[in-house]
């Protein structure tokens, strides 16, 4: 997929070295098509790593894509330079009057706090509410998924006795078009201290797409098919869990080694194909259902919401 990026965007050189096609603005403007417009709300501390992980995955389609990155204004960002954020990131006040074909809300290392204790919770709620009418489809990742399930459906977090950390086998429970081509069982990285209240899930208008071997929901979709909730991390690179493990121990946190991750002392990536397939399917689906004129998204979303009630 030709991803339109600024020439000096840090992820561009990494993607080019992996033979992923990134297109510059001058060439993009010569193509007589409407690119998909994606917005990524990046809540992770190391924003550049997350940019690379997600851009790598949305590169598997012939569609041209314009990507905007969004930061929360109500939080002090300590792990990414102000120069990078000022140059490449927007604030919600700059996009709230715009429509997007797709939105990705990343995870964040705040899951042990109550949602309302997170310093940018009010701003995130405003963004999630805005997305219901101004975006064709939303993908929520890890804590972003828990936040969406809590805000939209009132589903609570449930603490685990120990951190769920490693790669875990998932089984398809409900076949849905975003998972065409998926194996009946597949692997997904997990890195979290909390799950969700499964009893509350059963009472809501939500489809559970996949569960793990402990019957924990891993992928869910709202009944109106607008919101996708990934409680794991398809976007993780091969060595991300190892980096997290070493980081935890450097901080004095006695996290166990990631489960099902090392084999004979080596890391094997068991989730890469499904990760690429999911984002390919998602982009193709968005392309099929989003209107050509972006301003029509709000009108179509209102009709969609009415049909779901």
Automatic annotation (TrEMBL):
<dbReference type="Pfam" id="PF04204">
    <property type="entry name" value="HTS"/>
</dbReference>
<feature type="active site" description="Acyl-thioester intermediate">
    <location>
        <position position="142"/>
    </location>
</feature>
<keyword id="KW-0808">Transferase</keyword>
<keyword id="KW-0028">Amino-acid biosynthesis</keyword>
<comment type="similarity">
    <text>Belongs to the MetA family.</text>
</comment>
<dbReference type="InterPro" id="IPR005697">
    <property type="entry name" value="HST_MetA"/>
</dbReference>
<feature type="active site" description="Proton acceptor">
    <location>
        <position position="233"/>
    </location>
</feature>
<keyword id="KW-0012">Acyltransferase</keyword>
<dbReference type="InterPro" id="IPR029062">
    <property type="entry name" value="Class_I_gatase-like"/>
</dbReference>
<feature type="site" description="Important for substrate specificity">
    <location>
        <position position="191"/>
    </location>
</feature>
<comment type="pathway">
    <text>Amino-acid biosynthesis; L-methionine biosynthesis via de novo pathway; O-acetyl-L-homoserine from L-homoserine: step 1/1.</text>
</comment>
<dbReference type="InterPro" id="IPR033752">
    <property type="entry name" value="MetA_family"/>
</dbReference>
<feature type="active site">
    <location>
        <position position="235"/>
    </location>
</feature>
<feature type="binding site">
    <location>
        <position position="247"/>
    </location>
    <ligand>
        <name>substrate</name>
    </ligand>
</feature>
<feature type="binding site">
    <location>
        <position position="191"/>
    </location>
    <ligand>
        <name>substrate</name>
    </ligand>
</feature>
<feature type="binding site">
    <location>
        <position position="163"/>
    </location>
    <ligand>
        <name>substrate</name>
    </ligand>
</feature>
<comment type="function">
    <text>Transfers an acetyl group from acetyl-CoA to L-homoserine, forming acetyl-L-homoserine.</text>
</comment>
<keyword id="KW-0963">Cytoplasm</keyword>
<feature type="site" description="Important for acyl-CoA specificity">
    <location>
        <position position="111"/>
    </location>
</feature>
<dbReference type="GO" id="GO:0008899">
    <property type="term" value="F:homoserine O-succinyltransferase activity"/>
</dbReference>
<keyword id="KW-0486">Methionine biosynthesis</keyword>
<protein>
    <recommendedName>
        <fullName>Homoserine O-acetyltransferase</fullName>
        <ecNumber>2.3.1.31</ecNumber>
    </recommendedName>
</protein>
């Amino acid at each position: 997929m030709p991803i339109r990026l600024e020439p000096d965007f840090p992820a561009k050189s990494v993607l080019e070295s992996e033979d992923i096609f990134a297109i510059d603005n001058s060439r993009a403007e010569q193509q007589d098509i409407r690119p998909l417009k994606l917005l990524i709300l990046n809540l992770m501390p190391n924003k550049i790593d997350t940019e690379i992980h997600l851009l790598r995955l949305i590169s598997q389609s012939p569609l041209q894509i314009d990507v905007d990155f969004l930061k929360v204004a109500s939080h002090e960002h300590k792990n990414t330079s102000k120069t990078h954020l000022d140059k490449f990131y927007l604030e919600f006040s700059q996009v709230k009057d715009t429509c997007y074909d797709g939105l990705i809300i990343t995870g964040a290392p705040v899951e042990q706090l109550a949602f309302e204790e997170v310093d940018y919770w009010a701003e995130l709620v405003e963004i999630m509410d805005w997305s219901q009418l101004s975006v064709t489809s939303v993908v929520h990742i890890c804590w972003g998924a828990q936040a969406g399930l809590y805000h939209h459906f009132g589903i609570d977090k449930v603490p685990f006795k120990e951190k769920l950390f490693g790669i875990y086998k998932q089984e398809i429970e409900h076949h849905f078009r975003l998972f065409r081509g998926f194996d009946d069982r597949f692997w997904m990285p997990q890195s979290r201290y909390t799950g969700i209240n499964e009893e509350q899930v059963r009472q809501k208008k939500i489809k559970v797409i996949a569960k793990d071997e402990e019957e924990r929901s891993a992928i869910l979709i709202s009944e109106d098919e607008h919101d996708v909730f990934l409680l794991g991390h398809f976007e993780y690179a091969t060595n991300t869990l190892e980096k997290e493990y070493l980081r935890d121990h450097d901080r004095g946190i006695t996290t166990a080694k990631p489960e099902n991750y090392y084999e004979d002392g080596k890391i094997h990536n068991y989730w890469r194909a499904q990760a690429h397939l999911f984002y390919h399917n998602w982009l193709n689906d968005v392309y099929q259902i989003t209107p050509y004129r972006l301003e029509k998204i709000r009108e179509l979303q209102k009709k969609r919401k009415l049909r779901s009630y």
